[in-house]
Amino acid sequence: MDLFLSTFENKIDRKGRISVPAIYRNVFERKNTSLYLFKSLTKSCLEGCGIDRINQIVDAIDQMDVLSEDTLTLQTMLSSTQEMKFDNEGRIMLSDDFIGYASLDGIALFSGIGRSFEIWNPLQWYPRDTATRDSAKKGKVPKLSFARNSNQGYS
User: Fold this and answer.
1) What is the value of pTM for the model shown?
2) 65 found inside a domain
């Protein structure tokens, strides 16, 4: 399974182009899928994933009550989703809307979070990272449970 891990900082040029880390691009190339970006619903960042993740969200919506708040929330997320195309140098073009939403200013931080990744203003990401680590040092660590999944081992 391809995962998005680690953090990377890359410059955004005056036209809004940014290089996606090669290790992330390789995931999309291996799967022969596009990169999709959307505005995070809960954080001041952008979230990136492949079509498999988008399809999971669409499938979840199909199983929900069409008039529920949960459905509206997921539909709102999908309404901001944009399919991104890589140029010959592995860059994507961020819209002004995306740049403004995530308060990006010349540099963006890519943070791998497993099956997706986030794009942050580093000035917002680093304090959040520090606070989370400090909280964990004080014992506020989530309990992990491992359920046997016949297709992928332990998850």
Assistant:
1) 0.87
2) yes
